[in-house]
User: Fold this.
Amino acid sequence: QLQLVESGGGLVQPGGSLRLSCAASGFTLDYYAISWFRQAPGKEREGVSCISSTGDSRNYADSVDGRFTISRDNAKNTVYLQMTSLKPEDTADYYCAARKRHSSYYCSLSATQEYDYWGQGTQVTVSS
Assistant:
């Protein structure tokens, strides 16, 4: 079965850290740009971070820039989102998405763009 599977979510106190993983099953991520999105209750899905297929290009939403780091390990067929200095407003369901585009510069934070695969999401709650 071709799918993306997120993991690593949970409950964390403000100021804490979490690392989310996005693992591909049934296909290789080598030629895919990967994007992370989040959606809080009652809010639209927003792009958080993305990474090109080669890993040379990374983009971040202003709200997470400097606190989140995206990386990929193609040997493990996995993309990571390291989240630090977490705030209550980071609370949301986090999703990864893959778009087949082999490029050193391309990735997208647009939630309205067409993606080849979406994960099922992992919940992140930041609360004391």
